[in-house]
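Predict structure. Input: Glycine betaine transporter BetL, 542 residues.
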Amino acid sequence: MYQQAQRGPLKGLNPRVTLVTFVVVVVSLIFGAFFTEQLGHGLALVRSVLDPFLEWYYVLLVAFLLLFMIWLGTGRYKNVRLGSDFEQPEFTFFSWVAMLFAAGTGVGILFWSVAQPILQFQENPFIADGMSPDAARVAMRLTYFHWGLNGWAIFSFVALVLAYFSYRWKMPLTIRSGLKPLFGDRTDGLLGDAVDVLAVFGTVFGIATTLGLGVQQMNAGLDAVFGLPSSLTLQLIVTAVIMSVATFSVVSGVKRGVRLLSEANFWLSIAVVVFMLLFGPTQYLIAITIESTGDYIQNLMGMTFHTNATRDDGWQAEWTVFFWGWWLAWSPFVGMFIARVSRGRTFREFVMGVLLVPTLITIVWIGLFGGTALYHELFGTGGIVAAVEADVATALFATIDAMGLGLLGQGVSAVLVLLIATYLITSANAGTLVINTILAGGDPEPPTAHRILWGGLLGLLTAVLLMAGGLETLQAAVIMAALPFSVVIMLMIAGLLKALHRERYAARTGERAEAPREPWADLDDAGSQPVPVSNDEAHKAH
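Output follows.
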């Protein structure tokens, strides 16, 4: 395998990947700290240049990934197992779902579950009459779209590729492994290093962006509960505390720290959802969730391929490009984390679980929180639109306030602040673990000192992005980080197809994979041997 340092501070790490990513992050920190305004303007300028291209490029890529994942989960390879044929899943179904949901969308959905429906309620390109009942329905549909199947298709694809090559072919749990069928030994050198650098780059800025959004929202919650006004100083303090706890958690490993935190905030989320259902406009919430879900399913393909080609209103760049960029930037991180906890599941179990279960949870969550906000704007006292226009981060707590629950509402806001904190911690520690796993060449238990170092760097980068201009800068950063990794994803598609075809051929002919007629004959260097695609295939082979 590729070179790793054997001594000194880089022991156990790939020296080239580690040094390059470290230098890039440190330079970004220095530039952002001393040239904050220039960083914000520069990111905005680059985004304005790339947006016209990304408006169709990201759409096409994400549409293909959705259809491709459905095919993998239902087609000829559905019985391929992420491990040996009879290997059982490492984690229970509940723990698995809790971890992938908490790491995948926990923080983001807390921020946008009210803010996005309210913003789309005011204006969107699919309806002329804003602030109307029809606008509310369309706003829910669009929010489901940006948080539903398409986004999870990105996460699930990267996770499946990593898990397949790691657990079935005994290769390192790192991005470069997915390109082995295409490039052979070259993935062990500079080409593989470049791929891993892009993965770490996207992961670092993707996590920093989400942490920044979460910290802003947590600040709004502290204002609602304790009267602490929104300020950059408080946000920096919150960032430091969150990253300190997250780093401590990630040092304890996946089976203890990450799993327990994920399960804790999953149960806390359920409690909050039950509260919203009982104390909110229950009948309306059930009705709008059902109606919006049907609307989402009915319009899924049209929205998936929508590029806003006949309009020049900036909606596509502001919303779809940002969200697809966010999902793509997070995909190395969340994909590797999901792969880390998905060993032993078949393609069918994996695809159905990762695509459907988080999407259903998301639909319920947005239906209750976003539906409550829309109800109060349509039939209640309102005020949420004004709060969102003043500060997007206040949307969630403005909704709780509009419910008029007094001290009970204050208590719920306090619980939501705690929930935001736990989701931030979960995302941060999972991201730190993934970054170090890539740098350590796929080692699922990277050195503790390096986990601590990268936890600190993530906190510093989040602080710099917050100082550089808040939401717009965070959005621009994540879109830029996603673009280079999107090219890697296209190569991973080709690599996976080639490997699956080779394995199916070997199962049918009884041929061993140690001597394939492919340019990746060294795939079996680690002593692995492909197992049949399914028991049926094995029977046919004999």
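The chain has one domain: 8-541.
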